[in-house]
Amino acid sequence: MVPMPDPEEARVAELLDRVRRGELSEGEREELALYAAEDPSLHQAIAARSEEARLGEGWLARVEADDRIATIEGSRGVQIERGIGLALVLGGLVTSSLAPLTGSLALLAGVLLLIYSFARVRLATHRRDPYKDIKR
Fold first, then answer.
1. Of 4, 36, 55, 134, which is most buried by a Cβ count within 10 Å?
2. From CA 10, how far away is CA 26, in angstroms rounded?
């Protein structure tokens, strides 16, 4: 015969999982404190799960920051801006043999537009970069 699981142990395990996920309500926190008052070894488990939750929040914040950066870098405006810059550079290279002044101006405008685009995106994403404080 298979022994039935203890409902209190199952409830404590569920509450500890909720601590790890950061979903514990105030009432559940009080309930867990009552269980911990009966079993002092439970304090270590609660502290460990709280630490796991804190670490998980940091990871989640970094993932969200990475998504925001990727959204900025891949936005339609940035793609259009860089496409125009590249077209000006290529057009300037082709035109420079036929009309040197026009080709050179188009080439210069394209290069400046590309530099501006990369610098603008870099400055915008650097403020949101969660890894900027890491020394490489």
1. 36
2. 19
Q: Three-state SS across 61-112?
A: HHHHHHHHHHHHHCCHHHHHHHHHHHHHHHHHHHHCCCCHHHHHHHHHHHHH
The predicted-structure confidence for 15-64, as pLDDT tens digits, reads as follows 888 887 777 788 888 888 888 888 888 888 888 888 777 776 666 667 77
Question: Are 61 and 81 in a shared domain?
Answer: no
> How many whole angstroms separate alpha carbon 18 and alpha carbon 55?
15
Domain that includes residue 89, residue range: 75-136
As for how many domains the chain has, the answer is 2
> Which of 19, 44, 52 is CA-nearest to residue 11?
19
- Together in a domain, 69 and 84: no
Angle subtended by helix axes 100-126 and 42-73, to nearest 10: 160
| Last residue of one domain, picked from the residues 73, 100, 125 | 73
Domain end marker among 26, 57, 73: 73
Residues 28 and 45 in one domain: yes
User: How many CB atoms neighbour CB 57 within 10 A?
Assistant: 11
How far is Cα 129 from Cα 43, in angstroms, rounded to an integer? 36
